[in-house]
Design goal:
Low-confidence stretches: none
Radius of gyration: 17 Å
Strand order of the largest sheet: 3-4-2-5-6-7-1-8
Order of helices and strands: EHEHEHEHEEEHE
Number of helices: 5
Length: 194
C-alpha cells in the first residue's frame, strides 16, 4: 500500500515544452502501460468544446466542488449538442479519460484551456542493479501538470510542472538521474504521488 513519491523535475510556462520533456522521460519507462490518463478542469464553454473535439468518448463530470444548478451531482448533458446558454450554468466541469498511448496527447495539449490539466504515463523504470536502482510497476511513471505545481492537482499556477514518480520510499538517486536526462535537476522535496 502507499503512494508513489513525485519529484518535480521541470517547471516552465511553455506547455508544449513541458509535454515534450515529459514524453522524453516516459520513453525511458519499461513495461509501459498501453494507456495514458488525461485529466482537465474545464472553466469555460470554449474549454469544454475544445476537449470534446479532441477526446474520444469523453465523460464530463461536475467539478469536485461544484454541483449542478438544480443541486444535482451527475452531469448528463451532451456537450456536443447543448447550446452555450444551456451549458454555462454547469461550469466548471472536469473530464478524465484513459486513451491509447500516443493517440491524442498532442491534441489534448493543443486544446488546453484555462483550468488545470494533467497527463499520467505509468510503467516501470529500468532495472539498474549496478546503481542499486530497481523499477516498481506500482509506483513508477511520469506526470505533467499543466497550470499547477502539485502532483495531487492542488492550486492553479501560471506554470506547468513535470514530475517523475518513484517508489513510496522516494528514490532520490533515480529522480536525479531522470532529471539529468532532460537537462534539469530535482527542484523540490518529493510530493505525495499516485
Amino acid at each position: 500500500m502507499g503512494n508513489s513519491k513525485a519529484y518535480p523535475v521541470l517547471r516552465t510556462t511553455d506547455a508544449a515544452l513541458a509535454f515534450r520533456q515529459a514524453e522524453r522521460l516516459s520513453a525511458l519507462l519499461t513495461q509501459r502501460d498501453g494507456e495514458v490518463e488525461l485529466f482537465a478542469e474545464l472553466r469555460t464553454i470554449a474549454d469544454v468544446r475544445q476537449m470534446a473535439a479532441v477526446l474520444p468518448e469523453p465523460s464530463f463530470a461536475y467539478s469536485e466542488m461544484h454541483i449542478g444548478p438544480a443541486g444535482e451531482r451527475s452531469f448528463e448533458l451532451d456537450v456536443t449538442t447543448a447550446d452555450d446558454a444551456t451549458l454555462e450554468p454547469h461550469l466548471p466541469l472536469e473530464v478524465m479519460v484513459d486513451v491509447p498511448r500516443g493517440s491524442v496527447e498532442d491534441h489534448f495539449v493543443a486544446a488546453l484551456g484555462q483550468g488545470m490539466a494533467g497527463i499520467d504515463w505509468h510503467g516501470s523504470w529500468p532495472e539498474e542493479p549496478e546503481d542499486d536502482l530497481h523499477g516498481s510497476a506500482k509506483y513508477d511513471g511520469v506526470q505533467v501538470v499543466f497550470q499547477g505545481d502539485h502532483a495531487q492537482l492542488g492550486r492553479w499556477t501560471e506554470h506547468h510542472t513535470v514530475f517523475v514518480h518513484v517508489d513510496k520510499f522516494g528514490d532520490l538517486p533515480r529522480a536525479r538521474k531522470l532529471a539529468a536526462h532532460i537537462g534539469s535537476a530535482v527542484l523540490d522535496e518529493p510530493q505525495l504521488g499516485w
